[in-house]
Design a protein that fits this description.
With 199 residues, the chain is mostly helical. The protein contains eight helices and four strands; from the N terminus they run αααββαββαααα. The radius of gyration is 19 Å and the shape is globular.
Length: 199
């Protein structure tokens, strides 16, 4: 078997390993901040701001004083003094307020994972399902084909929500309930379904 053939045969494994690294490295940022390695935490945040909005109200915070794992609203973080009272980027985002890049958190509220919760669920779902399939395939287990209609049904919730969110924010539809706009559980659920279907 040639090197090219071996590479192609191992391509799924390589892809899964790359995605594992991509989804796990952001968790090193809060760890670095927690142990006083601010420079490393900052560099990880800086790298991932190219790939994710990192909005504080859609992010996971680790190692806070009250809880090791937490989610916050913008108002809660304003009250804690982690973010400024006014929108720091009004030209880019007028509504809703934008607080993302540049706000890593602190020892009180915890340190932000620089990958939003939907991305964590999406890539996490992808690598978990993909890893399971690869393990089964290596052990010679038969892998049942999933009908395309089921895969599409699993992809649709995130697609619909993503489009709805874009329309809501783009048109500044203030009548839409805040629980829908800022729902963490919705982001985890739709992201995990989408990632699992891709896997």
């Amino acid at each position: 078997m040639s090197k090219a053939d071996r590479f192609i045969e191992n391509l799924p494994l390589i892809l899964v390993l790359v995605v594992w690294v991509y989804v796990l490295v952001p968790f090193l940022a809060p760890v670095a901040y927690y142990f006083g390695h601010d420079d490393l935490g900052f560099r990880i945040n800086e790298i991932y701001e190219q790939f994710c909005h990192q909005r504080v109200e859609r992010s996971l915070f680790l190692f806070g004083e009250e809880s090791p794992i937490a989610f916050y609203s913008v108002d809660q973080l304003k009250e804690a003094g982690v973010i400024p009272e006014t929108n720091p980027d009004p030209q880019h985002y007028e509504w809703p307020e934008y607080f993302g890049h540049g706000y890593p958190g602190n020892a009180e509220v915890g340190w932000k994972v620089p990958l939003c919760i939907r991305d964590i669920a999406l890539y996490g779902g992808f690598v978990l399902i993909s890893t399971l399939i690869l393990i089964m395939a290596r052990r010679g287990r038969r892998i049942a084909k999933v009908p395309m209609c089921i895969l599409v049904a699993l992809l649709l919730p995130m697609i619909v929500d993503g489009v709805a969110q874009t329309v809501i924010e783009g048109l500044e539809l203030t009548w839409v309930p805040q629980w829908y706009i800022h729902s963490i559980s919705k982001r985890i659920f739709t992201g995990a379904l989408f990632g699992g279907a891709l896997g």
